[in-house]
Design brief:
The complex is a heterodimer of chains A (about 220) and B (about 280). Helices cover about 65% and strands about 0% of the residues of chain A. With about 220 residues, chain A is an all-alpha fold. Chain A folds into 2 domains: about 130 residues, Rna Polymerase Sigma Factor, Chain: A (Orthogonal Bundle), CATH 1.10.1740.10; about 80 residues, Winged helix-like DNA-binding domain superfamily/Winged helix DNA-binding domain (Arc Repressor Mutant, subunit A, Orthogonal Bundle). Chain B is of the alpha+beta class and about 280 residues long. Chain B has 3 domains: about 90 residues, Arc Repressor Mutant, subunit A, CATH 1.10.10; about 70 residues; about 100 residues, Immunoglobulin-like (Sandwich). Chain B is built from 8 helices and 8 strands. In chain B, strand 1 and strand 2 form a beta hairpin. In chain B, helix 7 runs antiparallel to helix 8. The relative contact order of chain B is 0.08. The chains are: A mainly alpha (about 220), B alpha+beta (about 280). At the A-B interface, helix 2, helix 3, helix 4, helix 6 and helix 7 of A face helix 2, helix 4 and helix 5 of B.
Chain lengths: ~220, ~280
């Protein structure tokens, strides 16, 4: 791996609410031709707004700033290295294509990027998982082994301060369900099967846990 | 509020719903602003979870590949500015939809074209087979006649085979092209051709059935130089034409006496240029 990923705003403020916004942030306002060039201090939301105007330089910077984070997420869910690399490519082509649809009033750029990356990663896992299960009799065994991995790694790796303490506010059952769903890429039905609980229970555990995390992390909508 | 659906907001935001449930949920969120806003907050929360992972630099050559693809990828058109209603209500419409695969326009067109023509080929095959079965049933008589029927079926199947081969030849060609030619009396002709393969298939669609003694004839028109490109068997069956296709030749359709004419006896009722 390349050693030094661009540091990602070490003291990252809550995304999307980082102080007063520059006047050119909202892509729906202003005359594109008169728009200022992206400045070196622009965050993902500004870069995304410029990307929406077809600015490849802004997109290139957006990639530099966000790819290590999205790649970490994709690798985490997909695991297979070459598959993850492919997913990352697809994700950024998708980001380029859909940048015009990003609306800063609806959420942070980072949240938007993570949603695209996570969904693509999960879709990849599910389609390759389905193919693999069709191919192999011992699919279930592999699945069980993966679960153990996810649980162990989840505990080791989810360590960023704020998130870590928020996660600690969850019951073990809740955090297990959320980790399996988000980092493991399982459906809530699979989560239920893996934890041997009813589907309805899995669903509520996930939602209740998300409510706690949302409140702890100060996310508002 | 629908409790059953509402409790799925968490699973939705973590992409933990099956494809069916996801679609169902998408519709539900479109109608329930409260649930939609909760789902959005959960998505932000999930983004925070992602942000807690230690960053991992992707291999540098990946970026070059992305930039190369971006250079040849058109961005989506922006959605129309919303109605002045609460911003919440149309969330799912603006939801990024990575499930929709990124396909280049050319490949998309090619695939639409391919599937359409595969359907045509399948239909043609079915028609000839049905015709064969029809013949089979009507011939209950003498052995001789039955043999004649078998021969007819064989020749029709040979034709179908030829049709299939021509079609796949055209589809495989680098220069395969498609043209729809509207016809004045209603209906149209769908043309699929390849100069490289010197082959063209014409599929009539919705043409009027002609009275006995009349038939549709196709022409290749280059100024005053008009040559027959063949007869349509009826108003529905595809026609194959092999032979050189000159640049910018006009394909014209006329109605002629059954058996065809040397030269068209009327102005074309439909014409298109094979550019």
């Amino acid at each position: 791996m390349t050693p030094d990923p661009t540091p990602l705003e070490p003291e990252r403020p809550p995304p999307g609410r980082a102080g007063p916004r520059p006047p050119h942030e909202d892509p729906s306002r202003g005359e594109p031709g008169l728009r200022a060039m992206p400045s070196p201090s622009d965050g993902p939301a500004e870069l995304l707004a410029h990307t929406a105007l077809g600015d490849e330089d802004a997109f290139s910077r957006l990639y530099d700033e966000t790819a290590p984070q999205l790649f970490a997420l994709i690798r985490r869910v997909v695991r297979d290295v070459s598959m993850s690399e492919e997913v990352l490519q697809e994700v950024y082509v998708e980001v380029w294509r859909q940048a015009t649809r990003f609306d800063a009033r609806r959420g942070s750029a980072r949240g938007w990027l993570c949603t695209i990356a996570h969904r693509r990663a999960v879709d990849t896992v599910r389609s390759s998982e389905a193919a693999r299960r069709r191919d192999s009799e011992d699919g279930l065994l592999t699945l069980e082994q993966q679960v153990v991995d996810v649980q162990e790694e989840g505990i080791m790796r989810v360590e960023s301060g704020r998130v870590h303490s928020a996660m600690k506010a969850l019951t073990t059952a809740q955090s297990e369900a959320i980790r399996l769903a988000y980092f493991g890429g399982y459906t809530h039905r699979e989560v239920a099967a893996l934890l041997d609980i009813p589907v309805g229970t899995a669903k509520t555990r996930i939602r209740d846990g998300m409510i706690v995390l949302r409140d702890r992390l100060g996310v508002t909508s | 509020m629908n409790d059953q659906e509402h409790t799925k907001t968490g699973a939705w935001a973590l992409n933990a719903l099956d494809a069916d449930e996801r679609e169902q949920m998408r519709r539900y969120l479109a109608e329930d602003p409260e649930a939609a806003s909760e789902a959005r907050a959960f998505e932000e929360t999930a983004g925070e979870l992602a942000g807690s992972l230690p960053p991992l630099a992707p291999p540098p050559q990946l970026k070059a590949a992305v930039m190369a693809r971006v250079a040849t990828t058109r961005q989506l058109s922006p959605l129309p500015e919303e109605e002045p209603e609460p911003a919440d209500s149309s969330e799912p419409a603006e939801h990024p939809d990575p499930t929709e695969p990124v396909i280049s326009l050319d490949r998309y067109r090619a695939s639409v074209r391919r599937s359409r023509w595969t359907t045509v080929a399948a239909a043609a095959l079915l028609l000839t087979t049905l015709a064969g079965v029809g013949l089979w049933n009507s011939e209950r008589a003498a052995q001789q006649e039955m043999e004649a029927t078998l021969a007819a079926m064989e020749s029709q199947q040979a034709a179908a085979q030829q049709e299939r081969e021509m079609l796949s030849g055209i589809l495989a060609a680098d220069d395969s092209a498609h043209l729809a030619v509207p016809v004045a009396d209603g209906g149209s002709l769908e043309l699929m051709y390849s100069r490289e393969q010197q082959a063209m298939i014409v599929q009539p669609a919705g043409l009027e059935a002609l009275p006995a003694g009349r038939a549709y004839q196709l022409w290749m028109i280059e100024g005053d130089d008009i040559t027959s490109a063949g007869m349509l068997e009826d108003s529905e069956s595809p026609m194959m034409h092999s032979g050189a296709i000159p640049q910018d030749v006009t394909i014209g359709l006329t109605i002629e006496p059954a058996g065809g004419s040397e030269q068209p006896t009327m102005e074309p009722i439909g014409a298109g240029v094979l550019s």
